[in-house]
Design brief:
Blueprint: H1 16-27, E1 35-39, H2 45-52, E2 57-62, H3 65-78, E3 84-88, H4 91-94, E4 101-106, H5 116-124, E5 128-139, E6 147-148, E7 151-159, E8 162-169
Parallel strand pairs: 1-2, 1-4, 2-3, 4-5
Antiparallel strand pairs: 5-8, 6-7, 7-8
Amino acid sequence: MPLDSPKAPGVRPTTDRVRSALFNILARDGIEGARAADLFAGTGSLGIEALSRGAANAVFVEADRRQIAVIRANLQATGFARKAEVVAGRAERALHRLGPRDLLLMDPPYAQPFPAALIARIGDAGILGERGVLVCGHASRVLADDRCGALVKHDDRRYGDSSLAFYGPSREAA
């Protein structure tokens, strides 16, 4: 089912190609029962995809009020509204609302610098479980930091102008 995706300034939905590649990678370790979060949610497509693949629940964080209405409409249309919480606000200020998460998806605007400080805060706050994964979309021309606080980049995949950086707790600390 296609999601509502109105043309709004700064909104760049994750392409079908990148989303498909991301979830094929994540499916190797399983998404079933995961506690997910979609930061910089936009249309909610990443969190909704996680729910459609068996995630137990998802928190959607979005600062733009117009996009919050889009996320809620998309959740209703897909039947996932009961498994979701929508948080209005900037990702940096909403971390306390996430609780422990197994899967953290973020696709911030490419016009912003790579969110290394936010990723470090997530890792240092213990929001990501010890076997959890954080995936951050970024422009391919931007290098993703190898380490952001307690989280270490384990992979970085390029798909044309978009890339996906995969972070998790340091395997040395485990």
